[in-house]
Amino acid sequence: MSIKPFVLLMLLLFFPVAALGSDKAAWMGPGITWCADFAKACAGDPANAENLFFSWALGFMSGLNTELLQHGETDLKELPQETQKKFLRSYCEAHPRASYLEAVFNLYNRMRHDQGLPNYLKTWHEPPKGR
């Protein structure tokens, strides 16, 4: 990849953060872009763009798991990574106006459902068991 496409990809990925104009940000990185922007990035450099976004997704889901250690964390390896990537691509193709973050939440909740665990948001708001 030459420098020019790389710089354009980075601007595309991080522009939404700068565009928010806020002094605070709860989440940052490629995952806060729109699904349509994810598709554009993947069209320009499929392997590198998808790996960048998916690395963010894995980190985000790992962070969600940290909060759930007392409730039953999601096994991120139970669904093969290629299947996870396909889910995210399909979700974003079907929902171009959604954020990539929304796609990741849907993937995470699908994996939780498949593993017999409750939806993330329901679990997050419940008090720890035994208290």
Helices and strands in order, then pairings?
Blueprint (H helix, E strand, L loop, with lengths): L2 H17 L15 H10 L1 H22 L13 H14 L5 H15 L5 H6 L6
Helix pairs in contact: 1-2, 2-3, 2-4, 3-5, 4-5
Based on the model shown, name its key terms:
single chain; 131 residues; mainly alpha; 6 helices; 0% strand; globular; disordered N terminus; disordered C terminus
Explain what the structure shows.
The protein is mostly helical and 131 residues long. It has one domain (3-125). 64% of the residues lie in helices and 0% in strands. The protein is built from 6 helices and no strands. Helix 2 packs across helix 4 (81-94) and helix 3 crosses helix 5. The radius of gyration is 16 Å and the shape is globular.
Summed up:
The protein has one domain (3-125).
How large is the count of helical segments? 6
Strand content: under 5%
Written as H for each helix and E for each strand, in order along the chain, the element string is HHHHHH
Radius of gyration, in angstroms, nearest whole number = 16 Å
Q: Structural class per helix/strand content?
A: mainly alpha
Distance between the ends = 54 Å
β-strand number: 0
State the major sheet.
none
Helix content: 55-70%
Tell me the domain tally: 1
pLDDT < 50 runs, ≥5 residues? 1-20, 123-131
Dominant shape? globular
Q: What value does the average pLDDT take? A: 79
